[in-house]
Write a structure and sequence with these properties.
Length: 303
C-alpha cells in the first residue's frame, strides 16, 4: 500500500498513469476481501486496478516459493496485457515493494544454503525477466519506516498473518535477525554486505564472459555447449563454476542458475574424471579427455 500510494502521487505529478495489481493466492479466506480493499482504494484515487487469482499451489515442498513463482508469472502476464492495451510504444515497469528487511532476510536464508557471492548479493533493485523490467525502489527503506508513513498519511493496509507464521523459513530468518542484532548482525549490515557482494559478483560475471570467449568451442546460440576442458581447468575455479552455471541455466532453459552446493562437486568431478556423466538443471553434462558437453537432459547425442 505504501508503494501504491507513493507511486500514485509520483505519477500524478508527472502525468503518468499507474496500473496496480493485487494477487490473490487463494490460500486464506480473507485474501479476497483484502484484495478488494486495495481495489476500493484504487477506485477512490482513480487508479486502474486488477485482482489476479492464482491456483494450483497445493502440494508438498516450499509453499512460499511456489506462491512467489506463481505471483511473478501472473504479474508478468498482466503487465504484458497492460502494455498491449495502452499501446506498444509505452514503456512498462513492474514495481514491487521489497524492503531492506526483505533483503536482509533473503541474504540470511541464502547464507544457510551455502550460497556464494551471487546468492549473497541478494535482490537487485532492477532486473529483466520474461520480457518485463522489474524494479524494487524500497530496498533502502525499513519496513517500519513505511508503516510510519502509512500512519501519518492515513493510508490503510492489511497485515498478512503468514508474516508471523514460524512454519515458513522467511519468518524464522526474521526472528533470527531480532536475536542476532545485539551481536552486530543487523538488517542494515546485511543489506550493505549484499551491495558489496553484488559489485564483486559483477566482476566475476565479467571474468566468466571472458572465459566463455576462450573456452566455448561452438556457437553459443546452439542447443548444446561444447567447452574446452583444458581452458576450464586453467581458469580460476570460481570463474569456471560461474561459466558452467550460466551455461547450464541457458541450455536447460531455466530462470535460475544451479546452486553452488550442487555445482561445486560437479565441477570437481568434471576436472578429475574423463568419462564422467551427470545431470543438473535439466541438462546432461559429460566430460571426455578434451571437452565438456552440456545438452538438454532429454536430447539425443546428435541434437
Amino acid at each position: 500500500m505504501a508503494l501504491l500510494a507513493m507511486l500514485h502521487r509520483w505519477g500524478a505529478r508527472r502525468d503518468l498513469q499507474i496500473h496496480a495489481a493485487t494477487v490473490d493466492h487463494g490460500l486464506r479466506p480473507e485474501a479476497r476481501a483484502e484484495a478488494e480493499m486495495v481495489a476500493g482504494w484504487c477506485a477512490d484515487q482513480g487508479v486502474s486496478h486488477t485482482i489476479l487469482t492464482v491456483t494450483g499451489l497445493d502440494g508438498p515442498g516450499n509453499l512460499q516459493a511456489r506462491a512467489r513463482d506463481a505471483r511473478y508469472e501472473a504479474l508478468a502476464d498482466w503487465s504484458i496485457g497492460v502494455q498491449r492495451r495502452v499501446g506498444s510504444q509505452a514503456h512498462i515497469n513492474v514495481v514491487t515493494g521489497h524492503t531492506m528487511d526483505d533483503q536482509a532476510e533473503t541474504v540470511l536464508m541464502r547464507l544457510a544454503r551455502g550460497s556464494g557471492a551471487e546468492g549473497l548479493s541478494g535482490m537487485s533493485d532492477a532486473l529483466e525477466w520474461k520480457g518485463v523490467l522489474w524494479r524494487r525502489p524500497f530496498l533502502t527503506f525499513r519496513r517500519a519506516d513505511l508503516r510510519d508513513w502509512l500512519h501519518a498519511e492515513g493510508v490503510p493496509w492489511v497485515e498478512d498473518p503468514s508474516n508471523d507464521d514460524p512454519a515458513f523459513d522467511r519468518i524464522k530468518a526474521r526472528r533470527a535477525l531480532e536475536v542476532l542484532e545485539p551481536l552486530g548482525l543487523t538488517v542494515e549490515g546485511l543489506a550493505a554486505t549484499a551491495d558489496r557482494l553484488r559489485r564483486q559478483s559483477e566482476v566475476l560475471d565479467l571474468d566468466a564472459c571472458l572465459l566463455e570467449n576462450r573456452a566455448l568451442l561452438n556457437d553459443a546460440t546452439q542447443s548444446h555447449a561444447e567447452i574446452d576442458r583444458e581452458s576450464l581447468r586453467r581458469a580460476h575455479p570460481d570463474t569456471a563454476m560461474r561459466f558452467l552455471a550460466e551455461t547450464i541455466r541457458r541450455i536447460g532453459s531455466r530462470d535460475y542458475r544451479p546452486r553452488f552446493r550442487a555445482l561445486e562437486p560437479l565441477y570437481e568431478k568434471l576436472m578429475r574424471k574423463p568419462g564422467f556423466r551427470a545431470t543438473l538443471g535439466l541438462c546432461l553434462i559429460e566430460a571426455d579427455v578434451h571437452s565438456v558437453i552440456i545438452r538438454p537432459e532429454h536430447a539425443g547425442p546428435n541434437d
